[in-house]
Amino acid sequence: MSYGGRVTDTYRQAGVYTGRILKGEKPADLAVQQSTKVELIINLTTAKALGLELPARLLALADEVIE
Fold first, then answer.
1. For residue 24, what pLDDT is reported?
2. Which helix (H) or strand (E) holds 45?
3. Rounded to an integer, what distance in angstroms lies between the CA atom of residue 63 and that of residue 25?
4. How far apart are CA 49 and CA 43, in angstroms?
5. What is the SS3 assignment for 7-51?
6. Theoretical Cys-Cys bridge with 20: which of 4, 25, 36, 67, CB 3.0 to 4.6 Å?
7. In sequence order, what E strands does the chain have?
8. Rg of the chain over CA atoms, in angstroms?
9. What is the DSSP letter of 32?
10. String of b and e for 31-45 (b: at least 16 CB within 10 Å)?
């Protein structure tokens, strides 16, 4: 199970930062940002291999379920 910032958002933010630096802004002047969009990914295959049974409600809330 993984709960954290979306990887695509992280790549997008890195691109925006890179663009700002290439336009002449100093890296020290750029604010630190965190991802505001998070996702829940559940690996059902691994859960079954470990003998874990996950509630249907949790599976329904997951953004992605790996089977």
1. 96
2. helix 44-49
3. 36
4. 10
5. HHHHHHHHHHHHHHHHCCCCHHHCCCCCCCCEEEEEEHHHHHHCC
6. 25
7. 2-5, 38-43, 64-66
8. 18
9. P
10. eeeeeeeebeebeee
SS3 assignment, position 60? helix
pLDDT for residue 37: 86
SS3 67: coil
What does the pLDDT look like over 2-59, one tens digit per residue?
999 888 888 999 999 999 999 999 999 999 888 888 999 999 999 999 999 999 999 9
pTM: 0.66
Distance CA 41, CA 21 (A): 33
